[in-house]
């Protein structure tokens, strides 16, 4: 067996080549780790942005729900009071002839006015009907009549008053519409 002896220069070159290969492998591994870490960072940033957007949407939705809840807090009570208003209004339509009935009439009228004022403070509004153009958002047509003096689609009579709470219709007006 013959051993080949290498010169110190050959050994130096061989060592340098091996070192370069090792350094190249280490550099490649580091670059892979860096690329992997950068991808993870980008993924986490995207996840954070999605979570932040979800949180912002949730807080906005909660705020809008709270505002709507506050705005329409009296809706159920006012809806229950609408028949009371109707009955008081009907009671005021009766013609009074005796003095006793007149004082009772005035008492009912005062109660009606107080109730109307209290409900208006909460945002209850009467929907205008007679003489207005028919609007299906505010009126419910229950019959049609013929009046040649008025335009077609005009409300001729209001059969039951309609009410809205701020911008929400609680009960549409029941109306008779011109053909």
From TrEMBL:
<keyword id="KW-0963">Cytoplasm</keyword>
<comment type="similarity">
    <text>Belongs to the GrpE family.</text>
</comment>
<dbReference type="InterPro" id="IPR013805">
    <property type="entry name" value="GrpE_CC"/>
</dbReference>
<keyword id="KW-0175">Coiled coil</keyword>
<feature type="coiled-coil region">
    <location>
        <begin position="27"/>
        <end position="61"/>
    </location>
</feature>
<comment type="function">
    <text>Participates actively in the response to hyperosmotic and heat shock by preventing the aggregation of stress-denatured proteins, in association with DnaK and GrpE. It is the nucleotide exchange factor for DnaK and may function as a thermosensor. Unfolded proteins bind initially to DnaJ; upon interaction with the DnaJ-bound protein, DnaK hydrolyzes its bound ATP, resulting in the formation of a stable complex. GrpE releases ADP from DnaK; ATP binding to DnaK triggers the release of the substrate protein, thus completing the reaction cycle.</text>
</comment>
<dbReference type="Pfam" id="PF01025">
    <property type="entry name" value="GrpE"/>
</dbReference>
<comment type="subunit">
    <text>Homodimer.</text>
</comment>
<dbReference type="InterPro" id="IPR000740">
    <property type="entry name" value="GrpE"/>
</dbReference>
<keyword id="KW-0143">Chaperone</keyword>
<dbReference type="InterPro" id="IPR009012">
    <property type="entry name" value="GrpE_head"/>
</dbReference>
<keyword id="KW-0346">Stress response</keyword>
<protein>
    <recommendedName>
        <fullName>Protein GrpE</fullName>
    </recommendedName>
</protein>
<feature type="region of interest" description="Disordered">
    <location>
        <begin position="1"/>
        <end position="20"/>
    </location>
</feature>
């Amino acid at each position: 067996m013959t051993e080949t002896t290498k010169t110190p220069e050959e050994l130096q070159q061989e060592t340098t080549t091996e070192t370069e290969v090792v350094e190249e492998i280490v550099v490649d591994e580091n670059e892979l780790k860096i690329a992997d870490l950068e991808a993870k960072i980008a993924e986490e940033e995207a996840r954070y942005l999605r979570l932040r957007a979800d949180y912002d949407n949730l807080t906005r939705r909660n705020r809008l729900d709270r505002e709507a809840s506050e705005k329409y807090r009296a809706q159920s009570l006012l809806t229950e009071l609408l028949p009371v208003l109707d009955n008081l209004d009907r009671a005021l339509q009766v013609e009074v002839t005796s003095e006793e009935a007149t004082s009772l009439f005035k008492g009912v009228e005062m109660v009606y006015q107080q109730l109307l004022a209290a409900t208006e403070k909460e945002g209850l509004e009467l929907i205008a009907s007679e003489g207005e153009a028919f609007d299906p958002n505010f009126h419910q047509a229950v019959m049609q009549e013929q009046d040649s003096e008025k335009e077609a689609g005009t409300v001729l009579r209001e059969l039951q008053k309609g009410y809205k709470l701020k911008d929400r219709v609680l009960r549409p007006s029941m109306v008779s519409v011109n053909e």
